[in-house]
Input
Amino acid sequence: MTRIVQTMTLAVLIWAPVRPLLAQPAPSADGCVACHADLAEPLAAPAQLFADDIHAASGFSCVDCHGGDPATSDRAAAKDPATGYRGVPTGPAVVETCARCHGDADFMRRFAPTQRVDQAAEYAVSGHGRRLAEGDTSVATCTSCHGPHGIRRVSDAQSPVFPLRVADTCGACHTDPSHMAGHDLGGVPFPTDQLAAYETSAHFEALTVGNDLSAPTCNDCHGSHGATPPGVDAVVNVCGTCHAAFAARYEQSTHAFIFEQGCAQCHDHHAIKAADDAMLAPGSSTCDGCHGEGETGLAVARTMSASIEGLKAALAQTGSLVERARTAGMEMSEQEVALREARNQLTLARTEVHTFDPAAVTQVVDEGLAQLAAIDRAGLAAMVELRYRRLGLAVSVGLILLFVVALYFKVRELDRRLPPG
Ligand code: HEC
Ligand code: HEC
Ligand code: HEC
Ligand code: HEC
Ligand code: HEC
Ligand code: HEC
Ligand code: HEC
Ligand code: HEC
Ligand code: HEC
Output
């Protein structure tokens, strides 16, 4: 009998550390899960949520984060300090709990060979991580963003860090004045408007209405774990990772050496609105806010604005000519393609604005105007041909009518000549 008990104990002792490595599904015989599932809230939630947890799917269980003995159904025995039971981790202990596996490259390679293992290292240098190291437990730790239980893959639409849900996850703290109380940003109370401002942005609209997952949410600009995304030395330079053509031009301009906030100096950093040509128009604060009357900066703005407005007017005129010819039945597909190309010049001109060099904008606009002139010539030729065809049609319709009338009188005359009956 003692033999059997000894063997079983030995089996349990071997099995416990080996089980996770074999990546088996969590056995229902897990004493922690079994007991907790039947407890009152909030003690049952961890066990219930665990069914959908990526860790459960990989064969891990409560003890892999909390320690303890899962092989017993006795509460005290399960949490005997001798079993290594750690209780509920808080603050830096949370990060250590996760990093024990997620920072161990050899261990992680066995389960997820392509997954990064630098989350805790990146976190340590982020604003959150540095504050935590100073003893501030109001900052985000791993579980603030991923949850402690029911952790899902980041690609799972229900994960709190899925692109469409990240903003609300960050917002849980960053919109709450009482949570952010006691924090300051360069001497002023820490602002809590980031989410509200972001929700008015072209980025939020592209992401949520346009379903464009390439549009940024909080972590695309701030990094998921580190202070800024990899390869960006400061958050203010993050725009160029996606808007490279704009950044390339801007970086060569006088402004790049003066502006502390980079692109955000004109576009804001959270409430980034769809841009339009009115930003350049006289009276708009984009340039007028800093450049007074008589300054080069303002003259440049006026020139660029006039150039772009000129191209837009020409595009509209040529567009309606092509449209008139097309609805009249003329073959205009070649001109429609050319018109699309000319329209690209307008987009390009708006990019060239970021050189803040009027010659760069004018050059692109002039190319567009030359393309439009060629389309105009083709369009006018089509209208002339149309008039010619219409004249031809009118003549033939006239001749046919004449023939029908003549035929009618001929038939009447024949009718009169025939004897009645
Ligand atoms: C027989 C039932 C039972 C078993 C088995 C059991 N627990 Fe508990 N657990 C409880 C109860 C009841 C509480 C709440 C009372 C308390 O704080 O001790 C609790 C509290 C906890 C807490 C939060 C309170 C704290 O500071 O300890 C954690 C974490 C926890 N259990 C994890 C585990 C883990 C991990 C296992 C398996 C190794 C386990 N439990 C096994 C019944 C159980
Ligand atoms: C991936 C690691 C991990 C696993 C696996 C895990 N926990 Fe936890 N658990 C934590 C952390 C971390 C906390 C601390 C709370 C926080 O940071 O939000 C916690 C908190 C708790 C608490 C305190 C109440 C609460 O919800 O905050 C209980 C009870 C608990 N866990 C029980 C369990 C049980 C039972 C299991 C197995 C079904 C389990 N945990 C699995 C990491 C884990
Ligand atoms: C658990 C609450 C909490 C959550 C969730 C949270 N934060 Fe924070 N965050 C804070 C607190 C508190 C500070 C203030 C630290 C300080 O005093 O500088 C902070 C500071 C910051 C800062 C400024 C830090 C610096 O480098 O100067 C940024 C940027 C930031 N958070 C971004 C985010 C993003 C992005 C998310 C979501 C992916 C997020 N936070 C989620 C609590 C949170
Ligand atoms: C401020 C919020 C926040 C904190 C704190 C945080 N994460 Fe993340 N984490 C994210 C986001 C957002 C993603 C999704 C990245 C993506 O979509 O590519 C992510 C992704 C991950 C991934 C998937 C692989 C990867 O690196 O993209 C793992 C694993 C992970 N986090 C673990 C951790 C661990 C461990 C900690 C604590 C050291 C932690 N996270 C802290 C927000 C956070
Ligand atoms: C016992 C080791 C271990 C511990 C402790 C652990 N994890 Fe994991 N975690 C893993 C492994 C292994 C995977 C990969 C599973 C897979 O890809 O099949 C994983 C996956 C994840 C993922 C999903 C990544 C993806 O593929 O999108 C997240 C998020 C995550 N863990 C967060 C955490 C957090 C937060 C903690 C701490 C509360 C934690 N983990 C604690 C081992 C661990
Ligand atoms: C398009 C990029 C971008 C997006 C998206 C973004 N931020 Fe920012 N954020 C910035 C820039 C740029 C700064 C200014 C950084 C600086 O001056 O060093 C900033 C500053 C911050 C700060 C510091 C305090 C402040 O208001 O200046 C916090 C906190 C913050 N962002 C949180 C968030 C949260 C939460 C989200 C999502 C709701 C978010 N950010 C989305 C680019 C972005
Ligand atoms: C000095 C002010 C200023 C700065 C700095 C600035 N922009 Fe702009 N941006 C403008 C103006 C003005 C427009 C509108 C041009 C138009 O539509 O005629 C614009 C338009 C845009 C557009 C929309 C273009 C389109 O096709 O409608 C994007 C995208 C853009 N900027 C990105 C950036 C990025 C990225 C940076 C930094 C690398 C940046 N901007 C820096 C003033 C600025
Ligand atoms: C992760 C990629 C990404 C980052 C980072 C990013 N953007 Fe965007 N941005 C987009 C996408 C996608 C759109 C929507 C599609 C479009 O209009 O190009 C967009 C739209 C815009 C628009 C509106 C364009 C229009 O047509 O009117 C402006 C202005 C803009 N972004 C400026 C910025 C600025 C300034 C930053 C940095 C603070 C920034 N973006 C950071 C991807 C990004
Ligand atoms: C935040 C303030 C600010 C905004 C907004 C701003 N500028 Fe400037 N700009 C400056 C400063 C400062 C200089 C360098 C001093 C100077 O020459 O006036 C400068 C320089 C210039 C120069 C070079 C002038 C020269 O003498 O070589 C041009 C051109 C220019 N800006 C055009 C623009 C245009 C166009 C806009 C609007 C799209 C604009 N700026 C918006 C602050 C600004």
In short: The pocket of heme C (ligand 6) is lined by residues 167, 170-171, 174, 185, 191, 194-195, 198, 203, 216-218, 221-222, 235-236, 238, 264, 269-270 (CB under 6 Å).
